[in-house]
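Listing S7. Sequence submitted for prediction.
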Amino acid sequence: MNTHLHTALSLAGSGVPVLPLRVGKLPFGNCPACAANACGGRPHMKTPGPCMCPLPCHGWAAATTDPTVLSSAPWTAAWQRAGAVAYHPGGAGVTVVDLDDADAIAWARETLPSTRTVATTRGEHWIYVGTMRSMNGVRAGVDIKSLMSYARWRGPGTGILADLPDTVRALAEKKSTVVRSARQAVTVPAPAGGEKCRHRSPAYLERGIVMAEQRITDATSGVHATVYRTFLAVLSAHGRCGCLAEAHIARLFAAAQAKGESPRHCTAAWSNALTALGM
């Protein structure tokens, strides 16, 4: 049996929802049946589960504890190509505080209660019992992975699981306040449009914005380039018909600023994307 599948089945048997990751720590992309988000963007809904197709797609929402699904033909093909196993922390009832460097670890040791710890390539995962919203960049080198997110499985770790502290919840709330302020500060006007709208419904635009926000949020390197490419994609799809509103742009800017981009860099990336598309 494939090593990754063996690990996945073991975790699933203990109630941990799992999914395969490609080499590079990213989930497998949408299957052909779900191309262009035709299924409605299952991972951005609040309840997990596979879409109508049989393949492992849509990131965290594909995570499952069903051994029959994990061992089915489409999934076993994915496990053969997988580079790692991931799990849905929220689905397992836990929250992962992802510490990316030595400074973040030092902060956690001074601030957070001791709990189960798992070593990572660059830092540590501190795992707590309890769930909350996931959020990247709550402080320098610290991400929170719980609901609607996935984390790479790196082993059981050491230490006794502690309850999720209010300190971690407060970090996410503080970050949300900053993001809301950033959204209110955006003054970049939306393109005026003029072409006939080809969107199937307002939900199509909303799904596009949600996917763009997620693409920026999930960036682990090359954030500048990711932000620019995402802005370019959004403008290419939605910038010429007039449906793209300033509120949508504010959400994209907020996602970028949550990853550390300055308002100036956001404005420059947006302007460059407009220029590249001749808008």
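Caption to Listing S7: primary sequence and predicted structure tokens for the chain studied. The longest strand covers residues 94-99. Residues 36 and 165 are 39 Å apart (CA to CA).
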